[in-house]
């Protein structure tokens, strides 16, 4: 396990927005503890506040009730301690693969030589050795997302946040990148939170699956996934856990067990230009 893996403690978190002069409750009394190095998947129908929850953890908003604590300290603003990857890779088209990843170290207290080493190390970590000088338009969608993951990890944050990172990819690429993400997570030992609409993906990757109910967003149930890695989707044990999670949505709008590029809240992808470069 990585020494810099963080402990996230969310305590009685509630959040509302003003819509046409009236309060709209988005999150209601969310409490969740995530241990160092743990991989937690969060699933729920559109509108349950999953992306809003990630936005609060990354520090993009501070107007809420309750506490969001990283290693016992309240999160205030964005920080290099928290890296995030969105559904869109957000690579700069005028920069090469290595230069896009190096942006994650722009404010890091490292020498130029140390930065070059970290970039090379993370290019190898995501399996893109040989593509250092490639431009984003020369990459497939899956390769571009690998670059985005490397950029989020290159300064070794305490927590990696993933907001539907594979939602726009085809099923074969998505399955392959799920396996790659599992490998990267095991290699880095980093605390990871994945938001997804894909129950199979949530069970394949997570140590536990947090099931949320919508309007306002609450935690309905936390389902442990006591299966060893690497996981086999074809086993009875895997199918039973997947069905157990899906059963929680029997009365809700249909939740897909396969990939579907649903955008829950477009505000989750709007980041101010002065946000630290791990947030793309």
TrEMBL record:
Ranges for domain ABC transporter: 8-239
Which keywords belong to this entry? ATP-binding, Cell membrane, Membrane, Nucleotide-binding, Transport
| Keyword Cell wall biogenesis/degradation attributed | no
Family the UniProt entry places it in: Belongs to the ABC transporter superfamily.
Name of the protein described by the UniProt record: ABC transporter ATP-binding protein
Q: Does the keyword field hold Cell membrane?
A: yes
Supply the CDD domains for this chain: ABC_NrtD_SsuB_transporters
A molecular function (GO) held by this record is: ATP binding
């Amino acid at each position: 396990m990585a020494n810099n893996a963080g402990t996230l403690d969310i305590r009685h978190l509630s959040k509302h927005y003003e819509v046409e002069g009236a309060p709209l409750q988005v999150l209601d009394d969310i409490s969740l503890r995530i241990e160092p190095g743990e991989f937690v998947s969060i699933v729920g129908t559109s509108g349950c506040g999953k992306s809003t929850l990630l936005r609060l953890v990354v520090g993009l908003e501070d107007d809420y009730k309750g506490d969001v604590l990283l290693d016992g300290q309240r999160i205030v603003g964005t920080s290099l301690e928290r890296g995030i990857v969105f559904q869109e890779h957000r690579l700069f088209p005028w920069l090469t693969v290595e230069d896009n990843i190096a942006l994650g170290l722009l404010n890091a207290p490292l020498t130029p030589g140390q930065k070059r080493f970290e970039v090379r190390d993370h290019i190898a970590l995501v399996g893109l050795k040989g593509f250092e000088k490639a431009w984003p338009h020369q990459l497939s969608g899956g390769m571009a997302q690998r670059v985005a993951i490397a950029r989020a990890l290159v300064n070794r944050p305490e927590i990696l946040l993933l907001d539907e990172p594979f939602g726009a990819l085809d099923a074969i690429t998505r399955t392959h990148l799920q396996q790659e993400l599992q490998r990267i997570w095991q290699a880095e030992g980093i605390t990871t939170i994945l938001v997804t609409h894909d129950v199979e993906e949530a069970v394949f990757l997570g140590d536990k699956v947090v099931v949320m109910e919508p309007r306002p967003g609450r935690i309905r149930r936390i389902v442990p996934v006591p299966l060893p890695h690497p996981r086999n989707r074809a086993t009875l044990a895997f199918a039973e856990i997947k069905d157990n999670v899906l059963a929680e949505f029997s009365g809700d709008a249909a939740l897909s067990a396969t990939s579907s590029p649903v955008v829950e809240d477009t505000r989750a992808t709007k980041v101010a230009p002065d946000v630290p470069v791990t947030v793309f």
